[in-house]
Structures are given as C-alpha cells and as structure tokens.
Amino acid sequence: MARSRTRLAAILLGTVAVAGPVGGQGIEPALLPVSYTLGGAPGLIEMPTARSAPDAELAATLSYGAGTARTSLTFQITPRLSGTFRYASIDGLGLGGTTTYDRSFDLRYRVLDEGRITPAIAIGINDLVGTGLYSSEYVVATKSLTDRLTGTVGIGWGRLAGVGAFDNPLGVFDGRFDTRPPNNFGQGGNFDASRYFRGDAALFGGLSYAHSDDLLFKIEYSSDASFAETAAGNFERRTPINFGVDWNLRPGIRLQGALLHGDTAAIGVTFALNAKRPAVNGGLDPAPQAVLVRAPGAAADLGWTAQADVTEILRGNLETALANDGMVLEGLRLDGNSATILIRNTRWNSTAQAVGRTARVMTRTLPASVETFEIVPTSQGTPTVGVTLARTDIELLENDPDASWRSYVRAELDSAEDAWDGAVRSPELYPRFTWALGPYVEASYFDPDSPVRLDFGAELDARYDIAPGLSLAGTLRQRLIGNRDDATRPSNSVIQRVRSESNLYAREDLSLTRLYGNYQFRPGENLYGRVTAGYLERAYAGVSTELLWKPPSSSLALGVELNYARQRAFDDLFDLQDYDVVTGHASAYWRAPNGFDVQLDAGRYLAGDTGATLSIDRTFGNGWRVGAYATLTDVSFTDFGEGSFDKGIRVSIPLSHFTGNASTRKARGTIQPILRDGGARLRVDNRLYEQVREDHDPALRRSWGRFWR
Questions:
Q1: What pLDDT was estimated at residue 282?
Q2: Could you give phi then psi for residue 315, rounded to 5 degrees?
Q3: Rounded to whole angstroms, what are the CA distances from 277 to 54, 280, 281, 662, 702?
Q4: Coil/strand/helix, residue 10
C-alpha cells in the first residue's frame, strides 16, 4: 500500500508541476463540447470532468432523481475558473424523515489544457461554504481518445471517496493528510480548509461518446456512495456504474436522462447563455448617420456667430436629431470654434456608442467653423465625464480600417464638473413630471416551507425633475396575487432584527416602496456628491449622503457614505418604528484587468455591527455583469445564525442580448442564500459609482469599438 500510495502521490505532484508552465497549447477547450452533470457542473452524470464550458457561459441546471431535486447556477468566471451555486432538497434527511434543504458552492480550476498527448486536468472543491453535505475535493483528467470518444479518470476525497477508498497518497508529504477531520460546519456557510484533500481517497472515471453533434452517451464509475441518501431509503445503491444520455435540444438547451446506481432514473435540463454571444445575431438598430465632411475652406466662415438667435436654432436642430437617435439634449454651450453638449442617453447600453452617434449628429447640424466637440453624458442631470473630439479626426477616420483605436487615442477625457457653466438648458426638461404604470414580480428564495415564493402586481413609478441633479421619485405597488405573505417562520435572530423580519412587509397588498428627494452635484474636479432623503426603501426611511472621487482616466475610485436610517412600520405606508441607526462606509473601487470590478466597503451596518464587504464582478463591454460578494463583521458566526455570514451572487443581463434592439434596460437578480441581520446594508437608489463607472475608463476604452456603430 505504501508503494502504491507513493506512486499516486508522484503522479499528482507531476501533474501540478507540468500544469504551471503549460497553457493554451493543443486543442482549444472552448471548441470542445461540454455537458453538465445532474449537479450542474461540467462533467459526466454525477462525476466531474476536466472540460470547461466556453468562457463567460452562464448555465442553470434543474434535475431530479433518487429523491433529490437540485437547482444549480454555474458561471465560467474565466477560461479556466468556474463556480457553481447549488440548492438541493433531499427527501428523508431531516428530523423525523422530513426534507432537508441544502445550499452549497463549488469552485474548479483547469490547471492544464488538453494537448496532443497530455489530457486536460482540473482541480475542484465542492461545498466550499455550505453545510458539508456535498463536501469533497478532486483532481480529474480528461482526454479525447477519438473524434467522438472522450475518457475521464480522477481521484476524489471526502464524499467522492465513498467507494473503493484507499489511503490518501498525499500522506507521503504530510501525515495530516491521512485523516479527515469530522464535519464541523455548524450553521453552514463557513470555510473549513482543514478538511480539504484530507482522509481516504478513491478513483472515479467514465467515457462519453458523441453519436452526433446533438446526442451524447455517457457512462461513469461513481465513487460517491451517497451514504446519507441510501440510509434515508431514497434508493438502493446496487452498482457504482451510472448510464446517461445528453441531448442538445437546441442551442442553449440540453436535456439529459440517467440510470443511477442500477436502481433509479434521473432527468435534468440545462439552460445556457453566454455573455459574449448574443441570443440574436447582429443588431436590429438603424444605421448611424453618415459623417458630413465640410467643404474645403468652410471652417473659416464665422458669419453665423452674428445671428442673434443662432444658439436657440442650433439647439432645436440638435435636439430633434439626437431624439431620433435615442438621446436627449440636456444643454448646449457654443462659440465660434467649439461646442459643448450635455446628453442623456436613453437607448444605447454603451456610452461609447452614444458618444459616437452624438458626434455624427454634430457634424451634420453645427456650423463648419466648430472644430472642437465636447460631449458630456449626464446621469440625473449631473455631468459624468467630458469626451473631447476634433471634428477633423471624425471626418478623416470614419472609414479608416483602424478607426476605433485611432479615434480613441485622439479623444480626451476630462472631469467636466463645470459643463453646465454658460450652457443653455433645454426648457422642456426642467421642471418635468413623468410616470409609468406596469407589472412587477418580486421573489423570495430558500424558505424551507416553500423554497420559491412569488408576488405579482402593478407598480406605479413617478418622477419629478425640478432642475439638473434635483428630483423627487416614488414607487407604489399593489399586489394582485402571490404567496410571499404566507411565510410564517419567525425570526430567531439574537441581534437587532434589521432584515430577518422582511417577510412581514410582504403581508401588505399596498406598499409604498420608496418616496424620496435626490440631489446630485459636482463639488469639484473629479468629485461627485449625492444627498437622498425620505422613504429610501421598503424597510427604512432616512437621509443618505455620499461623496465619490473618480478621475475619468483612472481605474481607481474612492468614496464615503454616511446615512441615518429609521426602520419603517410593517403594516402602514408612512409610520416608523423606534429603531434608528447611523451607518456608513468608506469604499474603494478598482477596475482590474480583464473586465473585473473589485469593490471593498468598510464601515458600520444596519444592525450596528462593523466590518467589510468584498465584491468581485466580471463586467463585459455589452453590458453583462456577473459577480459575488461576501461580508464579514464583528457579529460571530454563531450569533449570525444559519449561513454564518452574509454573501450572495448577482447577475445583470442587458435586454438587448435577447432582442437585438439597443436598450439601456437590464434584467437584474441577486441570489442571497440566507437573509439575516449581520452585514445588512441600507438599500439606496442612485449610488454614485454605479452612475459614473461605465462613462469612465477603462470601461469606456473597452467598449470604444461601438463608437462607430
């Protein structure tokens, strides 16, 4: 046994050593077919493979079999790294044979690409911050044996060492690897690195055969003994061999069926989207207007400046032309050789595209002597950035093969804090009242009595813009049907109950979700300010203030927020409860390479606890955003309760991905495994960094390819 263990350890060590310098050689993993397990991760039936999904693929898998129903969400975070969030209900595991609901999170990393001789190799950890029910680790290798046949072999620990277990080969390096500490996850949600790759190990493997591009047959040897499920009588494990078939019903939808353990059948379906591949090929938007090139010598004519009402005439022309292109002219400042226009983008999900279309309009509407264009996008009437372009460059580069890059390097970015100085406002914009009536859907998740609860109703949004940066806004909801009010589980929180009683707000059919005044301003160069007061969210009223420092060309931003909040009554539109709190955070924002946004917020939360929140999101030039956050405060894991600490996954998908039509609208969702009181933050509209981020570098640079579209 010692000799075989040494041999296995040498193989594992050699794998990691080879993986370091090798990358990207051989077969391109993104071009190879990938199927998902019933648990929602790339793999065979229950066992993982070393294959990765295409970069930026987001896949949701629903499956049922052997008394277990699972809903999984997997995102290919980078070409090599993927993460899976899973929610499972397992019959018979609870007290008295009741159903157990389990949340878990997996990470896997492909350390070696598949080559002509070498296999792809991946390392994974399952149930990284869960209850430990699925706790396991593995190293797996996958190799194409023929054009259609693929083989996989791996070694697993923890739950993946339930069949054919042997001494841990890593024990030759350190005797602590020989023993796996008992499950000590407590309330769940915390890390226990002392268990990783510890204890007995076992081998698993399988084959997949592509009968066609759409039909895949799979067979595997599973090392998961499913001790808890078999003890509950959910099935009888007669064999470690599983059989499965995977059918690509249509692009983005895969169906699968399986025979598990020689005893029971299972079914699953996977829905996949890719942030880099729109559901609609091409775009359905009208082509941009052509650049109007000035006649030779025309730029010297300044006679138009003597006309008394010329600014109003040109403002009207610009306003009409921009409206046809989905933008609102907020203001205009004009002299003989330069023009500054402030725009509100209502259509394009890329600031670069809005700026490019605006520049084209300016070439067609402004006098020939105007050589310098400054285009200033606004948010809530507040300037976010100034993009200065030379008209000559626009004329020269429109049909240049390298027009995008050349136009970007010639553009200049500035803070534009004084863009309103001397500008003529569009008179119909301020004051202005707008409203909208439409449906709404509100969901709550992971209640053991009903894992998904939904409310449907009508929502009235109203807004009154008083002046640039100054507005009133409110939302009134009338629930028509739903079951969120049926949640009856009382909060067992031992700290101030700032979120754990949120279900009590759902009992009222009519709710005033927000009613506030908002003032935004530019206190200085690279500075942005906000004051919001009123009923800030469904649970809290108060005052929120914020100051942000963000140079337009910098990847770094710093902010500070200070709030006074008072809890609102559960059963009335306007009444307040006795609890109040002062909260606030200092924040650092960093736009890291490869489209990653990192945010660190440190300060005081609603329950009076202090700590920090780390958020990491991957943002794409087309508006997609997928990320996660975690908060740790001075509330102990025990006092926090189930889940141990606050964490979540969030997704934002532009609607243009599905329609092909340009739109600034997005579908947003947050998966918060457990709603507790520790680490809870005030929910305030119009936070500043969200408003300026996409108008600044590096986001503007990354999306500049749309400037000419």
A1: 62
A2: -60, -45
A3: 10, 8, 8, 15, 17
A4: helix
